[in-house]
Fold this protein.
Amino acid sequence: MGERKIKKLRRTIIVICLIILFIDIFTNLPESKYYDKELKELVSQKKAQVIEVNKDMKIDKDTISIKRIINTDDKTYIRFTYKILEQGWSFPTSAINLYDDKGRQYKYKGGEAIGKIWGQDVLIEVEKIDEDAKSITLKLNWYDRKAEMTISLDKEKNVNENK
């Protein structure tokens, strides 16, 4: 009789662990392509222009993967992930400064990040990038960590969903 109770208890613990594992897996999947339902709606209504970037920037052993740039009528959004190999600080979205090819700096207006097991899923908002800008440069300045990435805004070189 005692052995039956132990088997039943063991099975119950296994089922509970599997439920927790499945919940954890689903909560750690990347957010939607645009991160935000309103942005997705603007893109589907052709009120936002999307430039697919898919470029990585290494910071020590960690990686920032710039996924896409989304331009609306009055704002620019940068969608990226921050993948960490070494546990430590969470990534401050304001650590990235944005400049165009003419040297103009765009002000950071805010950001959202969702923590995941592998790092962070991030959306930042900056001033609208000038339409005559040919490229932008992201400059990271975070304590002693520095990195830089230039992204072409040439619509012919980037996959653009609104063509």
About this structure: The CA atoms of residues 97 and 139 lie 5 Å apart.
